[in-house]
Amino acid sequence: MPRSEEASYRRLASLAKRRGLIPEGMQVTVAWVSRDQLSVALEPLPEWQTRIVDPIPVPSRLHDPSDVVTALSESETFQVDRGPRKRALRLAEALTVAARDRAMSVKAVLNQPRNTNYAYRDGPRRDEIEFTTGGDSLRLWFTQQMLKESHEPTQREIARVKRGYLFPDYDDVPAQQLGLVLDGAGGTFWADSWHDTDDHALEEDLAQILEEIGLRHEHRIELREAEHEREIARRQQEDQDRAAAEAKYRRRFVADAMKDQAKRWEEADRLRRYAAAIREAAADFAAEQRDAALEWAGQVETEASRIDPLPNAAKPPEIPEPSYSDLSPFMRSRSF
Fold it and tell me: Which end of the chain is more exposed for a tag (fewer CB within 10 A), N or C?
């Protein structure tokens, strides 16, 4: 259907999903097939959406923590505070161990600016965990909201009120619920962030997080392979275009040489006829004038012999190796 109807079909696909009208194991996809056309298809779910993965166990206590968790626990910029801190470290340990079991490289990256656009020295910082597989790296970090709770004044604060001092109405208290954010190239498959809710805990998301890292890595491999194939196609096309341009250049060079030789041959013939006319006219001149005319006729004949391609120069020319500027008029630009 026309691309102009894309928004309508995407709304219909979302409505069908919400109402449970899509058969189990299937999905509705909306994709561009050309500049002006759109396709809507009912297709099987991709394998990664139906893959069954084992849950990742989370240790109840940290008896022998990894280097990653040790670094986080000793860091002054680890962003999880108070009671949830120990739980966050146990979640980090579970992810680190499971990732290394999957041949990933894992390390703690401490004291990173929370806003990379404003990485000033005194800005807010956080600690991140970097996962690397096949040369592709992604960063994961915890989030913890700050809640406002009514401030319970102390006896000292109450006493200070009588002297004109005020106490805050609310206290900033770290939330018990945590979140995890994943940042890195490769698209988004399951999600780019996971959070505790009243009926859901981050412990249930750890396997999906590692799956997301693996899927992004696989997608980046596919992108690199596609780019490599495009580069090969581009170079092959360039070679073909250059070969075609060189053939055109050679034909043009030979044709120009032919025309130049013919032009010089005609010019030489004209000069010789002119020299003959001078000699004929000189027969009636006085001695001194005749000698001058005959000398001039000789110079004309010499020039005719110099430019005449016959007999020695009458042969195909040697074609020089063309430069880029020589070939550019015969090349056609392509975009990949």
Answer: C
What is the secondary structure of 304-323 as a DSSP string?
A: HHHH--TTTT-SPPPPPPP-
φ, ψ (nearest 5 deg) of residue 110: -95, 160
Q: What amino acid is encoded at 183 in this protein? A: D
| Angle between helix 206-282 and helix 287-307 axes, rounded to 10 deg | 160
Q: Which of 132, 83, 139, 94 is nearest to 114 (CA)?
A: 139
Residue 3 backbone dihedrals phi, psi, to 5 degrees:
-60, -25
User: Which positions ≥6 away from 51 have C-beta within 8 Å?
Assistant: 211
Phi, then psi, of 246 in degrees rounded to 5: -65, -40
Burial class (CB in 10 A: 0-12, 13-18, 19+), 32: exposed
Return the structure tokens found at 203: 């412990």
Q: What are the start-end ranges of the H helices in the chain? A: 6-18, 47-50, 67-74, 84-101, 155-161, 206-282, 287-307, 324-327
Q: Using CA atoms, how far apart are residues 94 and 212, in angstroms rounded to an integer?
A: 16
261-282: per-residue pLDDT in tens?
A: 999 999 999 999 999 999 999 9
Contact assessment for residue 126 and residue 134, using Cβ atoms and an 8 Å cutoff? no
The rounded distance, in Å, linking the Cα atoms of 322 and 249 is: 8
Show Cβ contacts of residue 147 under 8 Å, excluding neighbours closer than 6 positions.
172, 173, 174, 175
Neighbours of 168 (CB within 10 A): 11
Per DSSP bridges, beta strands 26-32 and 105-113 are unpaired
What the block records as the tokens of 175 is 């939330």
Contact assessment for residue 114 and residue 123, using Cβ atoms and an 8 Å cutoff:
yes
Q: Are 95 and 107 in contact (CB under 8 A)?
A: no
Percentage of residues in the chain with pLDDT exceeding 70? 96
Q: What angle do CA 101, 59, 100 make, to 5 degrees?
A: 15
Provide the mean pLDDT of the chain: 89
